[in-house]
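To: structure desk
From: M.T.
Subject: fold request, one chain
Message: Could you run this one when you get a chance? Sequence is below, nothing fancy, just the single chain.
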Amino acid sequence: MISAIGNNVPESFLSLSQSKTGIGKINHLTTRYKDEFLAGEIKLSNEALADLVKDNNPALNRNSYIAMLAAKEAVINSGIDTNDGLRTGVISSTTVAGMSKTELYYKEMFEKDDHLNVLDTHDCGDSTERIADYLGNVDYVTTISTACSSAANAIMLGCRMIKHGQLDRVVVGGVDALSKFTFNGFNTLMILDREWCKPFDENRKGLNLGEGAAFVVIEGENALNLRKGKALAEVVGYANANDAYHQTASSPEGYGATLAIQQALAMSGLVPSQIDYINMHGTGTPNNDLSESFATKAVFGNQVPKFSSTKAFTGHTLAAAASIEAVISVLSLQNSMIFPNLNFTTAIAETGLIPETTLVNTPINTILSNSFGFGGNCSSLIFKKA
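Reply: Done. Structure tokens follow.
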């Protein structure tokens, strides 16, 4: 995992446990909004990232660099060997792809035919192919792009392929780097906050964009037993529902989110009262936080579990959000911690829901993690302590 709060999992855990946000001034991205908006920017330059992955291909982009680093960390931490004969897949997700590099040379490509090699690394699938090559000996490679639910859907696909005997294990996650394209788009939608975002606060004004990548290794029981491995957590439930309400907004009533949560619970065999903590999507936008709050109350009634959004730490990392929050969820399970919902002061009037605002030490066995994308693409995952 790499994001604004750390270049790896231990650094990220330290920031989370110390309630230290990674959101601040923009240093590496060249944008007209550099002094206008805050962002969750990775602290390393492109040159430093290239040195870490030991690949100075001039066509490579920030997206590929951080994806390769995060995937490699996941594989090393898991202890798997991709040369052991088991069928290994790589399923990644991204929305920005190589845009951060392409946009730098867009005009020159038309005027002088210069830098056309950058186009080779522009599409969404390229960073996934780079991960597969970087890891070596991979049997299956694919890419998912469903906006902010992308990594959750990638995790679901990986689980399904293992369940149906198509793969023994998958390296799965998501990646998105900051780009001018992203800033311009979200600014046009008028959902960026010029200050630190305030998820689930009555006075929330929008999100802070972020960048990052995170990957996990998911194994079938047979594969895990063959190598005598130890699981950190189990994926016991997952579901996707699309309410198709609007191109860039969830339904005000949270219909898609409600369905996703209900169906994930049904798959897990758990009832709502057995969920110990919810890692909310919680972007800080007026639409998302109200919609997600309504969905949460629709499922849990007046017995809403402890919940928080961690996007005030990392910023909204788009396609990477669900995998970053999957890692955060596993850290919560491992360490019996609920990480706080930063910057909250006043509950949303329509729902009155109050997130956890300080670090909570409490036993946690089950976590629901939500990720909702543009177009009403709603996904929910349930993790259980192994």
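Reply (cont.): The chain is about 35% helix and 20% strand. Let me know if you need anything else for the meeting.
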